[in-house]
Design a protein that fits this description.
The chain has 19 helices and two strands. The protein has one domain (11-196, 209-421): Growth Hormone, Chain: A (Up-down Bundle), CATH 1.20.1250.20. It has 429 residues and is mainly α. It has helices spanning 3-8, 12-44, 47-63, 65-72, 77-101, 106-134, 140-168, 171-191, 209-221, 224-245, 247-254, 259-283, 289-309, 315-343, 349-361, 364-378, 381-398, 402-405, 413-419; strands at 194-198, 424-428. Strands 1-2 form a two-stranded antiparallel ribbon.
C-alpha cells in the first residue's frame, strides 16, 4: 500500500489520538516503576523483595484477567480504559503522599503494584480489542510493530529519565509525573469514539459472565496450534520472568554497578527493540510468521546464556547481550500479536486475549517464589543461564511440532464465526 493512502485514511486520527495519550501514560509509568524498583533495591538489597514485588504485580494477570476479559466484551471499552487510567493516577498520587510524609514502607509498594496490576488486567485487553476494531486488518502488523518500537523507546527514555528525576527531585515529585501522564491518557478518551462490537443476545436472555468465560475457553481450545505454542511458552517463562525482574540486583550486586549502569543496560535493550522493530517492519519476517517468532526465541535464549556465563569484570558483555535480547523481542512478539489480532473474532477479543495473557503468566508465581531465595543463596546468574537454555530448547523443538509450525492455518474459529455472520460494529462517542 502506498504511503499516501496510508496517510489519508480516516481511521488514523481517532486511533492515534488515543494511542498518543496512552504512550505518554506508559512512559510516565515506566519512569515511576524505575524509581520504585531502584528504591527497593537500595533499601533492601534482596532478591526476595524484588521477586515478591514482581509476583504481586503478576497475580491479577493470572486470576483477574480471564474474568476482566469477559466483562470487557460486555462493557464499553472506552470507559474501561478511562477508569483503569484513573486508578493508575490515584495510586501514584497515594505513593506521592506517602513519600512526602516520610512513612513509605516496602509493603506500600506491594499494595500499589497489586492495585495497578488489577487496573492493567482491564486496560490492556480493552486497548488491544479496540485496536483490532479501529485499525484495518491489513495494518494490524504495522501497528503491532509501532507499539513494540514505542516500547523500545520507553525502555530507552524511561530509566535515564527515572534516574535523572531521582537526582533532581524527591520521590514524591517523581510519582506526580506518573499522575500527570495518566491524565494525558484519560483526556483523549473523553471525546474520541471507539467502535464496539454489537453482541447478539437472545430475546429475554443474557448469558452469565461465567458462560461468556466458557465461550472464550472453548474458542481458544479450538485453536490447537496456539494451545501448543502457549504450552511451550509456559516452559521457558518459569526461568524467563525472574531473569527480567532481577536485572536491578544483577547490576548492583553481581557486577557492583550503579543506577546509571542499570539505566544504560535497559536503554540498550530499548535501542535493540527499536532496531528489531524497524528490521521486522522493513523485512516483514519469514512467510510463516511463526518461523520468525521461533527464530527470535532461539537467539534471545543465546543472549541470556551469555549473561549467565559472563564474569563480573566483563559487564560490557552483558550490555551487548541486553542489546541483542532487545532486538529479538519484536521478532517474537510482533508475529505472535499479528496472528492473534488477524484471526480472533472482534466480539471475542477481550475474553480470548485476557485468557492468553493469563495462561502465559501462570507459571510466573512458582518461578518467582523460588527465584528469590535460590538467587540469594547461590547467585543470580544461575537464572539467566537456565532461562537461555530453556528458550533455545523450546525454540528448536517447536520446529518439530506440526500444530505449532502450522499455527496460522489450523485456527478454524474464524470460519466458525463467519458462518454465523459478521458482527455489527457500533461507534460510542
Amino acid at each position: 500500500m502506498k504511503n499516501a493512502e496510508w496517510n489519508s485514511e480516516k481511521w488514523k486520527v481517532p486511533f492515534f489520538t488515543i494511542w498518543s495519550g496512552q504512550s505518554v501514560s506508559l512512559l510516565g509509568s515506566r519512569i515511576a516503576q524505575f524509581a520504585l524498583i531502584w528504591w527497593l533495591t537500595q533499601l533492601t538489597g534482596s532478591a526476595t523483595v524484588l521477586a515478591t514485588a514482581t509476583l504481586i504485580a503478576l497475580l491479577p494477570e493470572i486470576f483477574v484477567a480471564p474474568l476482566a476479559g469477559a466483562y470487557i466484551d460486555r462493557w464499553n471499552r472506552r470507559w474501561v480504559m478511562v477508569v483503569a487510567d484513573g486508578v493508575v493516577a490515584l495510586v501514584s498520587l497515594g505513593l506521592a503522599v506517602l513519600f512526602w510524609s516520610g512513612v513509605m514502607q516496602v509493603w506500600h509498594v506491594y499494595v500499589a503494584m497489586l492495585i495497578r496490576a488489577v487496573g492493567n488486567s482491564f486496560h490492556w485487553p480493552a486497548m488491544e480489542a479496540s485496536t483490532a476494531l479501529m485499525v484495518p486488518k491489513k495494518h494490524l502488523a504495522r501497528v503491532a510493530g509501532l507499539n513494540l518500537t514505542m516500547q523500545g523507546i520507553r525502555n530507552i527514555a524511561g530509566p535515564p529519565l527515572g534516574a535523572l528525576f531521582m537526582e533532581m527531585m524527591p520521590l514524591q515529585a517523581v510519582m506526580m509525573v506518573d499522575v500527570g501522564t495518566a491524565l494525558a491518557a484519560i483526556l483523549p478518551l473523553l471525546w474520541t469514539a471507539i467502535p464496539e462490537p454489537q453482541r447478539e443476545i437472545s430475546a429475554g436472555h443474557s448469558p452469565s459472565i461465567w458462560a461468556d468465560m466458557r465461550d472464550g475457553m472453548r474458542y481458544l481450545w479450538g485453536w490447537k496450534g496456539l494451545v501448543a505454542f502457549i504450552g511451550a511458552a509456559m516452559i521457558f517463562k518459569i526461568a524467563l520472568t525472574p531473569a527480567f525482574s532481577l536485572f536491578p540486583l544483577l547490576v548492583s550486586e553481581t557486577f557492583q554497578r550503579q543506577a546509571a549502569d542499570l539505566s544504560l543496560l535497559e536503554a540498550l535493550n530499548g535501542i535493540g527493540a527499536i532496531l528489531g522493530g524497524l528490521i521486522l517492519g522493513a523485512w516483514g519476517g519469514f512467510h510463516r510468521k511463526i518461523f520468525t517468532a521461533l527464530m527470535g526465541m532461539i537467539v534471545l535464549g543465546v543472549g541470556f546464556i551469555v549473561i549467565g556465563l559472563t564474569p563480573p569484570d566483563m559487564f560490557w558483555l552483558v550490555l551487548i547481550s541486553s542489546f541483542g535480547i532487545g532486538m529479538m523481542v519484536p521478532m517474537v512478539d510482533g508475529p505472535f500479536i499479528a496472528i492473534q489480532q488477524e484471526t480472533i473474532a472482534p466480539e471475542m477479543q477481550g475474553r480470548v486475549l485476557s485468557l492468553i495473557g493469563s495462561l502465559l503468566w501462570v507459571t510466573s508465581p512458582f518461578s518467582l517464589a523460588v527465584a528469590g531465595p535460590i538467587s540469594d543463596a547461590f547467585g543470580l546468574q544461575v537464572w539467566y543461564l537456565t532461562a537461555g537454555i530453556l528458550c533455545v530448547g523450546v525454540g528448536v523443538s517447536s520446529f518439530f511440532v506440526p500444530v505449532i509450525v502450522h499455527i496460522e492455518e489450523n485456527n478454524r474459529n474464524e470460519k466458525q464465526i463467519s458462518a454465523l455472520g459478521e458482527p455489527d460494529i457500533e461507534m460510542n462517542p
